[in-house]
Amino acid sequence: MRVLTILDRYILKRFLSTFFFSIMLILMIFIVFDIKDKIQTLSRDEIPLNEIVFDYYLMFIPYYGNYFSPLFTFIAVIFFTSKLAQQTEFIAILSSGTSFNRIMRPYIIGALILSLSSLALNHFILPKAFRVKIAFEDKYFNNTYNFDEINIHRKIGDHRMLYFESFDNKLNTAFKVSLEDVIDNKQVYFLKADHMKWDSLKHEWKFHNVEERTLMVQDRLDTLRYEKPIYKQKIKFTPDKSIKIEFSPGDMWRYESKIETMTYFELKEYINKERAKGSNLIPFFEVEQYKRSSFPFATFILTIIGFCVSSRKVRGGVGFQIALGLLLSCIYIMLMYVFTTIATTGFAHPLLAVWTPNLLFSVVAAFYYKTAQK
Q1: Looking at the DSSP assignment, which residues form a beta bridge with residue 167?
Q2: How wide is the angle at C-alpha 331 spanned by C-alphas 78 and 259, nearest 5°?
Q3: Residues 369, 304: contact at Cβ < 8 Å?
Q4: Which range has highest mean pLDDT (45-59, 301-315, 354-368)?
Q5: Which of 53, 143, 215, 358 has the greatest number of CB atoms lying within 10 Å of its CB?
């Protein structure tokens, strides 16, 4: 890439400075309202100040800053570009022989910087920050959360199924438990227990009041049917039994909390494991996976739209262009939520649903680019 010219540096500086100023301003407003909303909890529980600052609000800022970055990229582009247009600076630049596409170059560079930063945040940095933030929230805010699902089935191995009637997330205990091994469509092992409790030191489950039934093949003829093989059951009762299985209390967390704390490779591996278990939440996980890439891409589209909309001097002035920009941003966010809901209900593939708002707005960007003042 060629060295940036004075014009490139001037536009890029105005672009990024306006973006960071606006995003920091709105984040400060969010923090003030969040403190107002949680002040009673923060003061009543005597939470250490360093935990509030470093474990909660320091993690709060990058999440919401990244979440609203496409919107405020759009607003920043419209705000400072429309001011340049109102001051007839674009007319002077175009009159000097600089092409419209050449003026767009620093905007694309700025959008690339913000998009790549958002992509890195989404896939690798924010999940680690979220582990700290969610741990803080679960410790001080979510202590009333109860897991209320019943009759839970989990595939926890190639041939093993786990069932329990209910689960207490505070005690890390499952009730009315059964464990079953099935090979070639035949049950070869079955265990049932009153409950199982997680041992956090040994990372295993302790089953209470256990009945085990093992099915063994007998190498002899069935004297009645003259068929082989026949089976014999071996039943065993034990008061307590400790077993390590591919299941932990973390698997019973709210799925939102689990996926938000996973980096790109962790989430990809987790989706593969959940698919093997036959989980019905795969669309939720895939939406999160695809959204982490599609959302930063929106920065490019909204930057092009914002530039094309605001580069023309209009009678309504800056206020009209900002209002138009906010309207388009609201439509984009609404479409994102609508198609995300469609994906999670199974009416569309998550990849297609998550990227549909970007595809639609790409058409809008192409229209504004074609009709822009050149």
Answers
A1: 174
A2: 105
A3: yes
A4: 354-368
A5: 358
